[in-house]
Amino acid sequence: MRLSRHISQLWQSRVPTDRHLNTYFFFAVARLALVFVPQPGYVHPDEFFQSVEVMTGDHFRLEHTRTWEFNNSMPLRSITLPFALLRVPWSFYEFFAMYVQELWNVEIITTYAYVVFPRLIYTLISYSNDWCLYRVCRLYGLRFEIRLLALGSSWVLLVFGTRTFSNSLEMAMCSWLLCLVAECMLRTNTVVYKKEFLEEKYDKAESISERVKIWKLKNALPPHNFQYMFAVASICVAGVFNRPTFLLFGAPMVFYWLLRGMGTRSVTFRDFNLRIGLFCLCALPALFVFIFCDSLYYQHLTVGELHMMQLGIDNFVFTPWNFVKYNLNSAQTASHGVHPCYVHLMVNMPLLFNVLALAGLGAFAQILLRFFRAEYQVLPRFQSIVSLMSGAIFVPLFFLSLINHQEPRFLIPITFPLLLLHAPKLVTGFSAKYPFQKEHHLLRAFYDRLLCSKASAPHLLRIWYVSNVVLTLFFGFIHQAGIYPLAENMAHVMATKPAATHVHLMTSHVYSLPLHLVNIPSSRVLQFNPRTHNRYRRQRDFFLYEYGSQPLDNLLHKVKLISGNCEVKLSGSSRLRYKLYLSIPASLSNDLHEALVRSNASSYLNFELLHVFYPHLSTEAFPRIQGRHPCDVDAPHWSHDDLRGTCAVEQPPALSYFYLTRQFSSFVHQFGLALYEIEVRRKRPREIVLTTAPPRPLPEAGA
């Protein structure tokens, strides 16, 4: 009884920082748990097609899609980091899976493993962001509890941090670089201050013994001029080869690293120029490794050419330069989507960081206003941590806004500096004191009602929690979430189908299906049979047709062409059997039925609804308020027409409980991905009955 009372008193007397730290640990564990659930949400195709699709397909010899970025003639993506982070761990996993199969007869190389294992690697890397944030806070004496809480609860870490995006690696590398630069700046400032202090003491010393003592103290100061030079240079090279946009994020950080101590007697332009030269030299080993590995992978460089030393400039691949050349062409970048220059500032920043984006933009606007008013004495010191973090946020934000293709994930590397500067405002409010230089009744009212601690502090942390949880649920479990279970279903179909049967899958209004998740041995490479030790080439038997967001009338035309081609092969000499599937958002079931009626295809095409994978939302096909169910859940009110599994037209609107609940049910059931099996109705040949007439009697004699 006393123990429980003591624990209760300790819990009630805990400080708020302990509560923030406990909440952070909860979100840190949740981040890891979300990997194993796994999150079925599909944020963007680049999650798979810029690394996992190619690496997993190559390693396990699976059917996979090699996008245009990995073409051998002009590759845009470096393969070195994905190879080190995925191919090498896959080798250990495959070795472990072999023993699990032998000992317990359990197969662990499955679609689930193809999704979870790469995400686990990237999630473990994401925890380095947390450590770097904690390290910088400890170095500069900042409160780390609320900053770690903001980072751990951010949907950027919970979703993007657990996915295999190159942007996630870019965010980790920016955190590493910021941590190293911040530590170097602090060390340089400390050493330079102590050195100049000792030099003044040395000049004022009267006795030789005192001068000797000061001289020894001065020589005992730790070196600072070239601290972490090799690490900083190597991270910069790796970041550029991972994503060339790292140049925009890393440039202000490297500039601050080079500029440390400038303006003092101890650090001159000679040190600045020497740092630049040695930095370039330290970058050469990493540069050589990346170019060499990429050139070997893309077959511009072969072992034979290395042995014969027949090397030229064409034998080497520099993928960042290819990336820059491609993106300098505005017509090519426009094919991926054109956005106004303000999208990053006005849309993507608030989407990623909500209230902290507003706090960051407001603080930067205040800095600019004071700069243009020549109020230099109130600006942050140039070589301070505030100046470093502000440059790491707004320099890349400015240059990325000049590019006509803008996505939210391009900005996730600024998560670290933004939260370091502004996360405490979640508990203190936007502004603890009046931020404006002039007193005005409108400005005073704006401050009192929105900005002051009393008005904003009680709500900001709640808004942060709610918005991040909602966005995590949406992008982690709803957005395009039917693709993963569809791949699992197709993997089961391929594993259980009869021999000599082709499977055709058509998709529309959904993201691209990663082929490696279907777990089909590749037909383009030689396979190895471990039992017979023979090599063989497998015939292709799975065909994927992706039609983007085409109108359903055009989609049905494609269905007719593919089914007609399959019927020709079925009736030919090979008698090749087939299965034809169509997957579209459930919100388009009614449109599909209407398109079938218009095209008169229902007379010979039968669509049978096999599955609806919930939840799923395609922004290309939003559910409608007055829609139709994609599957049979209310049998008395359903008609089994040609499009089997779709309900009849809804009842005329009537303000009744039954009508409202039915409409709500129709709306909810549209949040799914429907899978149809398409069969061709074959006309049976007419049965021809041959009848013979009875013989005519012979005429009687004499008649």
From TrEMBL:
Question: Topology in the membrane?
Answer: Multi-pass membrane protein
Give the Enzyme Commission number. Answer: 2.4.1.-
Task: List the GO terms this entry assigns under cellular component, sorted alphabetically.
Answer: endoplasmic reticulum membrane
The pathway that the record names for this protein is: Glycolipid biosynthesis; glycosylphosphatidylinositol-anchor biosynthesis
Location (main, coarse): endoplasmic reticulum
Transmembrane residue ranges: 21-39, 103-125, 146-166, 228-258, 278-298, 351-372, 384-404, 410-428, 463-487
A Gene Ontology molecular function term for this protein is: alpha-1,2-mannosyltransferase activity
Query: Cellular location of this protein?
Result: Endoplasmic reticulum membrane
Q: What class of enzyme is it?
A: transferase
Question: Looking at the record's lineage, which domain of life comes first?
Answer: Eukaryota
GO BP terms, alphabetized: GPI anchor biosynthetic process
Q: Enumerate the InterPro entries for this protein.
A: GPI_mannosylTrfase
Among Pfam families, the record links this protein to: Glyco_transf_22
* Keyword line: Endoplasmic reticulum, Glycosyltransferase, GPI-anchor biosynthesis, Membrane, Transferase, Transmembrane, Transmembrane helix
Q: Which family does it belong to?
A: Belongs to the glycosyltransferase 22 family. PIGZ subfamily.
> Matching PANTHER family, A to Z?
GLYCOSYLTRANSFERASE, GPI MANNOSYLTRANSFERASE 4
Query: What is the protein's given name?
Result: Mannosyltransferase
- In its UniProt entry, the species of origin is given as Drosophila madeirensis
